[in-house]
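A student in our group prepared the protein record below, which I am reviewing. I have pasted the whole thing underneath without changing anything:
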Amino acid sequence: MAMGQQVGFDVEARRRRIFQSLLILALLGSVAVFVANVAGPSPEFAVGASSAIAFVVLGGVAVLFGFRRISNQTLGWGALAAGAMLSWAVLGYGLYLGGDDPGAAEGVLAILHWMPVLYVFAFMVVEGPRAVWAAVALFASVVVLSVPHAWLGLGASAGPLSATFLAQVLVAHVVTLVALSFFATLRRSLAAWRDTAEEMHTLAHTDALTGLANRRAALEVLVREVARAGRYQRDLAVLMLDIDRFKELNDTFGHPLGDRVLVALAERLRANVRASDLVARWGGEEFLVVAPETAMPFSLQLADVLRSHVEKDAFLDGHRVTVSIGVSSFREGDDVDALIERADAALYRAKAEGRNRVAVVDDLTETDRERMSAFANPPA
């Protein structure tokens, strides 16, 4: 059923757009570093060369990602691994090998300040609870590399860390991790609630036996389509179908066979209407077809196609059934009740005239109303 279908949130498409934005920002960042280094009072060859190499590599990755040669998962894990290794290298060099190099000290401070961004990225790349463990593992690596230097005085004598400063930084990292864990848990809960709500909506709008839309869903579509037809002067047709002598079938062969016939009929109807049409189980052995943009001649043709398909089809175990169909078309000033009432009257006219046929009524007569009453209140 195409009408009323909801479009789900595409997580991978959103993640892809975020990764593309990050790649653009990284490219701009490498350009900014290169320009700042060249324009500075004492350009450093290592900084200029590394930023140029980063620009080339990031540009190549961006092109491949744009042409979908690299998947979201591959790019995410690759970027996370590259960020982790770069952070470890800068921390290791700055804390234990850099000596009096001021650039090494600046690198350590930069990594400690930007490491929470890597935690956030871990939550973007890794799904579910594993994201927490990935971020905690990155945090643990910072602790392992920095604590010995700050507390035991190991490594470069002019290192940038003091125990007090490091404690403040690590507390800030822990707060970031707790916040990320909270929001990740909240996101999973919201996703579960959304899935439950969608499932409940589906159950409330779907007939359990046939899988078609139920009466509630059909009425919602009818209200919308009647309003659209009236506002824009568009065609709209409604077909009401009823299985002929269905009670006799149930009484003779049992309700299980009757249920199988209903399911088979639902499949036939669904297979022989347009994607834009709605097929619903109206109640009992009655089915409803809502056909937007369908004028009366074409709705009659559709009804006869459905009727003939059912007549010629041996449904189950050789048991044949037929259907009677009433057709009504939207008129200016109609509401849902008026449209359904004429379809009902046409259906009962088809029943009264011999069944297995299509009928239409222009205006309800007293005879039509008597037929409707008789079918609605059969004798005991």
The CA atoms of residues 87 and 261 lie 67 Å apart. The beta strands are 236-243, 278-283, 286-292, 314-316, 319-320, 323-329, 358-360.
